[in-house]
Amino acid sequence: MKEKIADLEEKARRLRVAIVKTLHKSQSGHTGGSLSAIDMVCALYFHKMRHNPVDPAWEGRDRFVLSKGHAAPALYVTLAECGYFPAEDLMMLRRLGSHLQGHPDSKGTPGVDVCTGSLGQGLSMANGMALGLKLDGKENRVYAVLGDGELQEGQIWEAAMAAAHYKSDNLCALIDSNGLQIDGDVAKVMNVSSIADKFKAFGWNVIEIDGHDMAQIVAALDEAEAHKGAPTAIVAKTVKGKGVHLFENKASYHGVTPNDDELPEALRCLGCCD
Amino acid sequence: MIATRDAYGEALAELGGENDKIVVLDADLSGSTKTGVFAKKFPNRFFNMGIAEANMVGTAAGLAAVGKVPFLSTFAIFAAGRGWEQIRQSVAYPKANVKIVATHGGVTVGEDGGSHQSVEDVAIMRAIPNMTVIVPADGEETKGAIRAVAAYKGPVYVRLGRNKVPSVFPAGHKFEIGKGVVVVPGTDLTFITTGLMTAAAVTAAEKLKAEGISARVLHIGTIKPLDKELVLQAAEETGAIVTAEEHSVVGGLGGAVAEYLAETCPTLMKRVGVYDRFGTSGKSDELLKYFGLNAETLIEEAREIVSRKK
Ligand SMILES: Cc1ncc(C[n+]2csc(CCOP(=O)(O)OP(=O)(O)O)c2C)c(N)n1
Ligand SMILES: [Mg+2]
Q1: In chain B, how many domains are there?
Q2: Which ipTM did the prediction report?
Q3: Within an 8 Å CB–CB cutoff, is residue A182 touching chain B?
Q4: Which one of B52, B82, B114 has the shortest CB-CB distance to A152?
Q5: Which residues in chain A have their CB less than 8 angstroms from residue B111's CB?
Q6: Which chain A residues contact residue B29 at CB under 8 A?
Q7: Which of A50, A248, B22, B307 fits A241 for a cystine, CB–CB 3.0-4.6 Å?
């Protein structure tokens, strides 16, 4: 198990490097929220989810919804690492004609099941998938990654109500609670705390973790799968921009990409010399 | 060259000093929409509603109901899209004095891609009774429009853009709601344009002159109510119309002009705009070219329509 965690941690480090390089190349996109979510996305794709990069439409796959669609780079580097498409495609992020759109687009990118980017809509789609899979008697699970600012959208709570009402225990929401949104601290812009208490009040099973502690992420995902009768919300305390001190905990780095001057230092932070 | 959203930020902060009934709401995009300028100057009259656009619309309607003059801003796709039914029920139906100023309209949103590029907002706002819909061509017109909109009593949707656009109007240009402006006189055809396509039409008209084609440019800053007089005049006097907008050809300016002329003065017509498809990621200037939203397309369409006249 220790070895497995260490492997996942190394994978996550490499994915962070890929995020930084991809965003440096595109010079457009969301750095902070990609780096805060990547440990969870990594654990999902390399530990928890059943999926098949050779057959993205495989019936037996678990489903993933990046509700905070602006963290697309985190998803894209993970899909590339899994082999859904060549890693070279990453260098075309956000370019005219590329399948790697600014926000996830299921029409073009192998491994992407729904379109996201307009915040607040992903949890509803995830619960719809969960309900449909259950109807078909399938065991497949559905995972959705949400932002903490995103929780301000009313539709999130409509979905939360519905998922608990229909006992969607095949649904797991992971909340990337980095405390920041575009205009500043979530607590100052429009307070959403306590996130855990809110989901509990809506009837969810709630697990609180450190969203950068791989052992805690893995344990929470396993616990969520074992929990029956209610959906699970994993409320993960995270750091926006995690891994590169230049970007950490800075609202100003939400939609800003690493420039030429920052790139070497960013890669150095991530234990990378090239 | 200035972005219409920058002109908005400036105008709004200025108006805030003149009228203390003006209040401003935003949904976590105050840096991008430029309402942040007002927020800095008048923090008490600024409400950041968080990422919750539907609630923001309803709250603005409530503020209007107690006599405030609310301006609310976010990206066009979230203002018109997420808030559509709230705008219809809580703002337009009671004729509430709410000003929706949406930035980042159209494909020039750029790299964010199709999810963020609103090409339908003018159509869905125009379809709502009581709604006034304004799309300024440049910074000067934006400043005039914001001033006019603050003085007008009733719901308004103003659509602005992300990027710097060329100037069409001189400093101090006065904006009148519902009035078009003939920017370039001409006799062979009329470009009826809005937003950043007006500057493109001016360029096109200049180039066409060298070929002996006299193109009129009629800028329509208010899509609803449409300036029927100038549109009819253009149809009667030039006999050929090319509309152009950074929006779907369904239901926007082209739609409005076609609907009106079909019933009053059927005229040779071509709509330039986005043909029933979503946007895509890319650089703004690349996308304008990709969707044919430039002077080159207008020149081609002008030649084509003038040849059809004969
Ligand atoms: C409906 C909607 N409104 C506004 C936006 C613009 N937007 C993109 S990201 C963002 C902030 C998101 O904050 P959070 O959910 O906390 O994400 P994170 O901090 O993980 O990046 C906003 C307002 C959007 N994408 N969708
Ligand atoms: Mg956040």
Answers
A1: 2
A2: 0.95
A3: yes
A4: B52
A5: 26, 28-29, 94, 102
A6: 182-183
A7: A248
Determine whether the interchain pair B280/A182 forms a contact, defined as Cβ–Cβ distance below 8 Å: no
Partner residue opposite B52 with nearest CB, options A94, A98, A190: A190
What gap in Å lies between CA B5 and CA B102, rounded to an integer? 9
A122 CB within 6 A, ligand 1: no
What is the atom index within ligand 1 of the atom nearest the CA of A182? 11
Give me the CATH number covering residue B206.
3.40.50.920
Q: Does residue A65 sit in helix, strand or coil? A: strand
In a domain? residue B170: no
pLDDT mean over B186-209? 98
* Band (A273; pLDDT cuts 50, 70, 90): low
Single-letter amino acid code for the residue at B176:
E
Instruction: Tell which of B165, B194, B228 closes a domain.
Output: B165
Asked if residue B102 lies in contact with residue B160, where contact means CB atoms within 8 angstroms, the answer is yes
- DSSP H or E run through A185: strand A184-185
Does A118 lie at the interface with B, CB-CB under 8 angstroms? Answer: yes
Cβ of A35 closer than 6 Å to ligand 1, yes or no, is: no
Residue B137 lies in a domain: yes
Structure tokens belonging to residue B157: 């949707």
Q: Which ligand is nearest to the CA of A255?
A: 1
Classify domain A2-269 at the CATH superfamily level. Answer: Thiamin diphosphate (ThDP)-binding fold, Pyr/PP domains (3.40.50.970)
**End-to-end CA gap in chain B:** 39
Residues of B annotated catalytic, as ranges: 53
Atom of ligand 1 nearest to the CA of A181: 13
pLDDT digits (tens, 9 = 90+) for A64-90: 999 999 999 999 999 999 999 999 999
Tell whether B173 is covered by a domain.
no
Q: How confident is the model at residue A272 (pLDDT cuts 50, 70, 90)?
A: confident
Give B-chain residues touching A190 at CB under 8 angstroms. 28, 48-52
How many beta carbons lie within 10 A of that of residue A15, not counting itself? Answer: 26
HEC per residue, chain B: CEEHHHHHHHHHHHHHHHCCCEEEEECCCHHHHCCHHHHHHCHHHEEECCCCHHHHHHHHHHHHHCCCEEEEECEHHHHHHHCHHHHHHHHHCCCCCCEEEEECECHHHHHHCCCCCECCHHHHHHCCCCCEEECCCCHHHHHHHHHHHHHCCCCEEEECCCCEECCCCCCCCCCCCCCCEEEECCCCEEEEECCCHHHHHHHHHHHHHHCCCCEEEEECCEEECCCHHHHHHHHHHHCEEEEEEEEECCCCHHHHHHHHHHHHCCCEEEEEEECCCCCCCCCHHHHHHHCCCCHHHHHHHHHHHHHHHC
Give the number of beta-carbon pairs within 8 Å between A and B: 91
| Enclosing domain of residue B53 | 2-165
